[in-house]
Amino acid sequence: MIDLLRDLFFDYTIRNVALGAAILGVVGGTLGCFAILRRQGLFGDALAHATLPGVCVAFILSGAKTPIVLMSGAALTAGLGALLILTIVHRTRIKQDAALGIVLSVFFGAGAVLITYIGGSGSGNQSGLDRFIFGQAATIVRDDVITMGILASLALLVVVLLFKEFKLLSFDPAFAASLGFPVGRLNVLLTMLIVVAVIIGIQAVGVVLMAAMLIIPAASARQWTDRLGTMITISGLFGALSGVSGALISATGANLPTGPLIVLSATALLVVSLFLGRSQGFLWSWIGSRRNRRNVLSNTDPSIPYRGGVG
């Protein structure tokens, strides 16, 4: 087993895929904590789907599948989708869940039309473009890993510098506004950081599964702690572990897709956390309930007669 892991680590392609997936897991897990605390778990899903038309337009304009060009197009349409969601929520009576559904369906529909158009255009270079829907982790190279690492480092640096502001924004935005914090700008900035996480992840897991890398590690970490800083740390570790394990499992099997395996690895950690999580896990909640009931029964004075009813 050790020899197998050593061989996998020294394989160029597998090493790049594992490192890229780990970077995605860390940044997705970190920013996902703020997303679920603000009840915006599906925000990343809408933004991921909004990247598809950007990828297609970038390919149509450039005629090449250069990753930096395609990612730039994805970033532009994802940012446009994010601003559109915020505008709909704040300028109309449409609720956030409806705004997410509108942007997700419209942008993904536009992307599907563009992919069909490209496929029928006869371009010899369009093969594989539709892999952005489900990810194409095997195509990650060293330059992609470096780019992902730089983007992730910048996003995490912003989180560190504005941690207190983002924390207050996540728990009590009204109180943050009363203290004079620029809540609107902070909200836009945090949304743009989620866009960065989506751009990092779509090449590995695709637009369909990207939301899972924002939601599942954070939801798993929430079962272990009630402190935001600790939750972010655990979520980043869970995300990295899911990415690396999914990449390695994919490398050891025949024709096993990397993106879905990364998500399944994260889901396995979620199941374990739901049962064993020290803060909110089923096992510790059950033990705490039994202990409280036993304490109540042991403190009950048997000399006091029970009187039914309320009062």
Number of individual domains: 1
**Which segments are poorly predicted (pLDDT under 50) over 5 or more consecutive residues?**
none
Mean pLDDT comes to 83
The CATH homologous superfamily name equals: ABC transporter involved in vitamin B12 uptake, BtuC
SS field, number of helical segments: 12
Strand content: under 5%
- Helix share, percent: over 70%
What is the number of strand segments?
A: 0
Instruction: Give the end-to-end Cα distance, rounded to a whole number of Å.
Output: 67 Å
Q: What string, H for helix and E for strand, traces the elements in order?
A: HHHHHHHHHHHH
**CATH architecture annotation:** Orthogonal Bundle
Q: Write down the overall geometry.
A: globular
Q: Which fold name fills CATH's third level, the topology?
A: ABC transporter involved in vitamin B12 uptake, BtuC
Put the structure in a nutshell.
Belongs to the ABC-3 integral membrane protein family. With 311 residues, the chain is mostly helical.
Overview of the molecule:
The protein has helices at 2-10, 12-37, 43-62, 67-91, 96-119, 142-161, 163-171, 173-178, 183-222, 228-252, 258-276, 282-299. With 311 residues, it is mostly helical. The protein has one domain (2-297): ABC transporter involved in vitamin B12 uptake, BtuC (Orthogonal Bundle). It is globular. The mean pLDDT is 83.
